[in-house]
Amino acid sequence: MHILPGEEIEETQVELLSGGDMLVRALQDEGVNLLFGYPGGSALHIYDAIFRQKSIKHVLVRHEQGATHAADGYARSTGKVGVVLVTSGPGATNAITGIATACMDSIPMVVISGQVPRDKIGEDAFQETDMVGCSRPVVKHSFLVKNAEDIPEVVRKAFYIARTGRPGPVVIDIPKDVTNPSERFPYRYPEKLRMRSYTPAGKGHGGQIRKAVALLLSARRPVIYAGGGVVQGEGAALLAELARCLNYPVTNTLMGLGAFPGSDKRFLGMLGMHGTFEANTAMHHADVILAVGARFDDRVTNTPGKFCPGAKIIHIDVDPASISKTIIADIPIVGTVAFVLGEMLETLKSTEEQPDQSAIVDWWRQIDDWRERHGLYTAPRYQTDGALIMPQEVIRAVYDMTEGEAFVTSDVGQHQMFAAQYYLFDKPRRWINSGGLGTMGFGLPAALGVKIAHPDKEVVCVTGEGSIQMCIQELSTATQYHLPIKILCLNNQALGMVKQWQEMQYEGRLSNSVYEESLPDFVKLAEAYGHLGVKIERRGELHVKLQEAFAERDRTVFIDVYVDPSEHVYPMQVMPNGSMRDMWLSKTERT
Amino acid sequence: MRRIISVLMENEPGALSRVVGLFSQRGYNIESLTVAPTEDNTLSRLTLVTIGDDRKIEQITKNLNKLVDVVKLVDLTEGSHIERELLLVKVRANGAQRDEVKRSVDIFRGQIVDVNSSIYTVQVAGTGEKLDAFLQALGEHTIMEVVRSGVSGIARGEKVLSL
Lengths: 591, 163
Fold this sequence. Notes:
Chain A is built from 20 helices and 22 strands. A 6-stranded parallel β-sheet of chain A has the order 3-2-4-5-7-6, with helices on both faces. A 6-stranded parallel β-sheet of chain A has the order 11-10-9-12-13-14, with helices on both faces. Chain A is 35% helix and 17% strand. With 163 residues, chain B is an alpha+beta fold. Chain B has helices at residues 15-25, 54-66, 96-107, 128-138, and strands spanning 2-10, 32-37, 43-51, 70-75, 81-92, 111-115, 119-126, 143-148, 152-155. In chain B, the strands form 2 sheets. In chain B, strands 5, 6, 7, 8 and 9 form a 5-stranded antiparallel β-sheet that branches. In chain B, strands 2-3-1-4 form a 4-stranded antiparallel β-sheet, covered by helices on one side. In chain B, strand 2 and strand 3 form a beta hairpin. Chain B starts with a strand and ends in an 8-residue tail after the last strand. The mean pLDDT of chain B is 95.
């Protein structure tokens, strides 16, 4: 129904709203109270509607990529859908990296982009870009809104799709004239949703679950391999119960850290390219692997043909396409992690069968021996008596100082791996990093999103001098919204991970991975944005200065720590053609 | 192995591009693709021919099913089915050639659908193999232009792909 200004309809209970107001109302009805965004021409009607309401807070970022990462951090730390609002053209394309980041890590997000008016679409209008087309490969789904009347239903569908099944980002592209304030339409938020083409998996197959439990109980060398799906699918408590009930070892993927308590003695550490010796070696020798909400990523499996040769694999995932994609599952179970783990626990409790205890004891003895030999947590595997600060000890110090309770966001590179290895997360949703896409620049805006969601919690962005410069403009957002976070920059004056690969695989030819004295003074830079800056260069002052920095509760602190620039991340799996257990343990030692 | 996958999907703008995009994004082959609305005009039926081993086809069908616009799909090659493709071909038909072409058209149970003093336009329907054979029978010297619709298919017997 199209109502012209001044015209009235008889149904008094139906409110008439413009497209812009409808969008904002639909977001309110969806329970949204926070938007991250950046205004521009095509989004101005929507921004005006935001100005005229109170319940949704809008955070103005400094770059649209920052908006997506902040919404992503918010979503990862809360489990809610992160919401982004950007304008057409460059606003929309700037958001793409953040959308792709969320897509790779299955993060629920709704991105609303302005579009040029309907009659201008396809004419190369000012700030026109085909957002639905540009974003298509990196979204779970997308909508181009052709009529204002469709807005409530599209918003309802977008949020439903974003948060159910395997979560992911959904784009809503809205032409400017659809949000025209002078045209009003009846507003009704749909209570029920009917989508014949979208039915996310729920319950796992009972027969498969029983088979899986039987296989698990028959295991002599089991490993539970848990990924981000356990965090996203709220399965952490069930996973811990299962692992404790069976006394089986657990390893987490980079995305899954916190899905099982890092301080539990059954935790083997992270697995994969920079996984621990004990996790990778145990995987290689396992006879049964229970993969939960993990996707056998190439950074986990190393060479697929050499992956865990003796293992039978049970794979639980909500996304059928993740099962048997790279590694064939012997017992595939499509369903939500929480449902399937719950059923497995029930089945375990109702059976009298037990694992072969002597086999499990032997297995633990073997694992403890691996831990003793090369484990990251049985002795420091880095230099402890040199003059230079080691990146690992910085993370350990911060772990101790924050009592393992901080929300830690990370950028991408060596610092990310050191944080993943040395900050042991006991709770899910505390470790926030771009695992799949590997997006440098993610950490700072993500930390802002986390801080908004958890204002009373310590939020630390572990970064490097390379990554931080990719979204450093968001220091200004931290000032505007008074978001006191800690930025921990492990400054090795080079693109550390690139340099590590160049040193290991390109005979030390450091092609474009060093800055040649061009780095800014981060202390002054932080101060220019109104924050505190701390520079730590000497080993002797590390703990005192870190303590001072972490004592500051009310301001953002940029802690620039100069670490040993020659340090590499170890273990590192041997590539190419290596198996899980083939690792470099130091610059000179190989398994 | 060659597979014919039939997909019922929402008749929405952008739905086709999601299917095509999926194939290019994940490095799957499309040999042919046809799409048109069904008797229920909110649904389109898309038929595509692709090549891959069982694992690849499994991934293709899983990923197609993941697309929000896809309602249902079936791999027709899993059971007995009827496959049809339409061919229109414009051929030179002068003198003795005219009878020769006419005979080939009859053998392949095609129809001449347009004619002038030197040209026949011929329509033939059948499997891809049959159309290949017909084109070979005509010989490349007589062929002026070829257009093929791509494969459509339907399962034999009781089996239907519908809501």
